[in-house]
Amino acid sequence: MRKSIIALVAALSVTGMTSTPAAAEPVSVSVSYADLDLAAPAGATVLKHRIKAAADKVCGRPHMRDLKAMAAWEDCRTAAQAEAVARLSSVAPAKSHVLASLF
Questions:
Q1: CA dist 44 to 5, 40, 69, 75, Å?
Q2: What is the C-alpha separation between 36 and 85, in angstroms, rounded?
Q3: 3-class SS at 5?
Q4: What are the tens digits of pLDDT across the range 66-83?
Q5: From CA 83, how far away is CA 71, in angstroms rounded?
Q6: Of 36 and 98, more confident
Q7: Can you tell me the distance from the alpha carbon of 80 to that of 56, in angstroms, rounded to the nearest whole number?
Q8: CA gap 80, 59 in Å, rounded
Q9: What does DSSP assign to residue 21?
Q10: Is the model more confident about 12 or about 88?
Q11: Contact by Cβ (8 Å): 24, 94
Q12: Among residues 94, 49, 56, 46, which one has the least CA distance to residue 78?
């Protein structure tokens, strides 16, 4: 079983988070879980926090006063986290139910 990395990818141009054409390419962050026991609640919780931190990096938080950008940022984070859980499900189906219950 491959137990090393989940990659989070977000297309920033879709969410409208940036205005520069160079940033329109998908951004990816790898999340390692090789050191975690996903069968244990503590391991799943740590992975959840890692995935949320990676989603924050991938999506890039906008200024709080830009309400449209904040809504797009939340959508981006939610989509990135769902993608990470889906990728985990395809790599380690027996472990993914623990993580899916945390989101």
A1: 14, 6, 30, 23
A2: 15
A3: strand
A4: 999 999 999 999 998 888
A5: 18
A6: 36
A7: 9
A8: 8
A9: G
A10: 88
A11: no
A12: 56
